[in-house]
Amino acid sequence: MIDDEVWQIAVDILETKFEIIILAPVAWIDLDDIDISYHNNILTIKWDRERPEIYNKDLIVRNSECFWGEFRRNIILPENLDFDSIKATLDNNLLIVTIDKLKFSNHSIKIEKI
């Protein structure tokens, strides 16, 4: 990673009849370090994964496939969501964000002859 580079969080976005569900795997992240916010129909998920102290020792890294640093994902959401209903849970290193859809009633409109 180049300094100041931000890694993109991998997400799955699922939709049911009643809600949107966003899944993001999180490993080695404390719950308090995850920030979720929204503004103008954009949901932002971000965290910073610090490199463990073992890397500070005098050692040679033979292989490096782990990602360390800042992670962020902006997700553009549809407007038909109840943003006051956003819930986030962490289950077995899986961040689960659910947002209810707005409920609209259906009405038939009778046309009157003038």
Structure description:
The structure is a single chain. With 114 residues, this protein is mainly beta. The protein has strands at residues 6-8, 12-15, 19-25, 35-39, 42-49, 69-76, 87-91, 94-100. The strands form two sheets. The chain has a four-stranded mixed beta sheet, with no helix packed on it. It has a four-stranded antiparallel beta sheet with strand order 2-3-8-7, with no helix packed on it. It is elongated and about 90 Å long.
Summarize, please.
The chain is an all-beta fold and 114 residues long. The protein has strands at residues 6-8, 12-15, 19-25, 35-39, 42-49, 69-76, 87-91, 94-100.
What are the secondary-structure elements, in order, as H or E? EEEEEEEE
Helix content: under 10%
**Overall residue-averaged pLDDT value:** 91
Structural class by sheet pairing and helices: mainly beta
This entry's quaternary arrangement is: single chain
- End-to-end distance, in Å? 71 Å
Number of E strands: 8
Strand order of the largest sheet: 1-6-5-4
How many helices does DSSP assign?
0
Strand-residue proportion: 35-45%
Largest sheet entry = 4 strands, mixed
Ranges where pLDDT stays below 50 over 5 or more residues in a row are none
Shape: elongated
Q: What's the gyration radius in Å?
A: 21 Å
